[in-house]
Design goal:
- The protein is an alpha+beta fold.
- It has three domains: about 5-90, ACP-like (Non-ribosomal Peptide Synthetase Peptidyl Carrier Protein, Chain A); about 105-130 and about 140-275, Cathepsin B, Chain A; about 280-440.
- Helices cover about 50% and strands about 10% of the residues.
- It is built from 16 helices and eight strands.
- The strands form two sheets. It has a six-stranded antiparallel β-sheet, with helices on both faces. A two-stranded antiparallel ribbon has the order 1-2.
- The longest helix is centred in the C-terminal third of the chain and has 39 residues, at about 390-425.
Length: about 450
């Protein structure tokens, strides 16, 4: 097998199996995400078909390998795998040298990121505590036993309430569900025209309808919160996307079309001039309200979905839908990077060895990456191109990986709580809630 053969196979799979609509961009140098518009799930689907078609064992490390960003680099990697023993590469935690770099570029939660943007530029407050509510944020499963990144029923009331408690800022919904899209757009444009310098106007739009705004997920649809401002040009708006760390001029009509998508509805306004410093007692209260030491909701939901789809007595599910059922997992798994914000915030105060912090960043990275390993096996199961014996092996592996997730996340939580306890002791906070002991009170 040579590189040309592998490149030809990649193109054929994209055409016949994935029905890729961007094949006119296909060249050896074409980027899988930016040029061929493959999201993280589709790249895994491509790898599944390569493994089954070419007989090349795909190690878990490939799912987190930045070196396979183009057709050519993927072919080089596959050629290496076809000629070497891959048994030593199966552990997704083997190569974590890019963990800190990925954290700097990773996206966690678009609603929270928009609210945090004003906090970041204020030297009197710290945005990191606001991420405490993200690591175990609500995980939705729809009636078909599929993970759901977005639902019409979801709201952000808890985040809004804690934003007020932590930073003194009221986040008000300007979007009215009982009004039409056109009426809500009129409200938005009125708010933009009247916007003060310190006001922030958020709107939910469908990022899939802004194809020039590249992202790693390319979900269709992709509900996402951004912030808008007017420009001197009536045909453009200035769009600020804190979660994807981008800002710039966007065609106004394109943005309106993305807002008009049936898949999205929502918008908020808040004023950053109202920001006030946060007391340690409120930060401790928020941490304890967000901390769940009894279970890991995301992993519990994944286990629940796998149970449902491999249950032959369940007529409403089918193992061939398991890959689709976990399709939203990459978008949700990145929430776990919020643990890094927790460690960073507490250790900033109490002091910590850099090596210890980096160690826990690696553990968190392994937690995120292992969800990909579960999803990859689920996709292989869904192809129905395996023998019963091979299916049973994959099912066993999936449950083993799920158990690993629980063990790893409970370990992260235990250490994070220990660090929180040290921080609380430093600031003389009563964790039992009977009374907060402040330095002022004891002075």
């Amino acid at each position: 097998m040579n590189k040309t053969t592998i490149i030809d196979a990649i193109k054929l799979i994209l055409e016949k199996e994935l029905n890729n609509q961007k094949l006119h961009h296909f060249t050896p140098s074409a980027r899988l995400n930016e040029d061929l518009y493959l999201d993280s799930v589709q790249i895994m689907q491509l790898l599944v078909h390569i493994e089954l078609t070419l007989g090349i064992d795909i190690p878990d490390a490939a799912l987190n390998n930045d070196d396979v960003a183009t057709v050519s680099s993927l072919a080089d990697f596959l050629l290496t795998q076809s000629n070497t023993d891959t048994s030593k590469s199966s552990d997704a935690t083997d190569d974590l040298s890019q963990a800190q770099e990925e954290f700097e570029d990773i996206k966690v939660h678009c609603f929270v990121s928009c609210l945090c943007e004003s906090i970041k530029v204020n030297p009197n407050v710290d945005h990191r505590p606001f991420y405490f509510g993200v690591w175990d944020a609500e995980v939705l499963v729809n009636q078909d036993h599929h993970l759901a990144y977005h639902s019409d029923d979801i709201n952000h009331d808890d985040f809004r309430e804690w934003y007020k408690k932590l930073y003194g800022v009221t986040v008000t919904s300007w979007y009215c569900e009982t009004l039409s899209k056109q009426e809500n757009l009129h409200t938005l444009q009125t708010l933009l025209a009247q916007k003060s310098e310190s006001e922030n106007i958020m709107v939910m739009l469908d990022m899939y309808l802004l194809p020039e705004r590249e992202n790693k997920f390319n979900q269709n649809p992709f509900p996402h919160y951004v912030m808008l401002e007017e420009t001197n040009d009536p045909t453009t708006w200035f769009m600020h996307d804190p979660d994807f760390r981008w800002e710039g001029i966007q065609n106004k009509s394109q943005v309106i079309a993305a807002i008009e998508s049936k898949a999205v509805a929502g918008g908020y306004i808040f004023d950053s001039r109202d920001i006030t410093p946060t007391s340690n007692s409120v930060i401790a209260e928020y941490f304890l309200a967000s901390f769940n030491d009894k279970n890991n909701p995301m992993t519990d939901k994944v286990r629940e979905i796998v149970d449902a789809h491999i249950d032959t007595n369940n007529s409403s599910t089918d193992i061939t839908q398991l890959g689709e059922a976990l399709k939203q997992l990459p978008v949700l798994a990145i929430r776990k990077y919020a643990y890094e914000h927790g460690f960073a915030f507490f250790w900033r105060d109490i002091g910590f060895p850099e090596a210890e912090f980096e160690h826990w960043c690696d553990v968190i990275e392994a937690l995120v990456s292992n969800y990909k390993n579960i999803q990859f096996r689920a996709m292989k199961l869904a192809t129905e191109q395996l023998s019963l014996a091979n299916k049973n092996v994959l099912i066993t592996e999936i449950y083993s990986l799920i158990d690993q997730q629980d063990e790893r996340e409970f370990r992260i939580k235990q250490h994070l709580f220990n660090v929180f306890s040290q921080w609380s002791a430093l600031h003389k906070l009563d964790l039992h809630g009977s009374q907060t002991i402040t330095e002022e009170a004891t002075a």
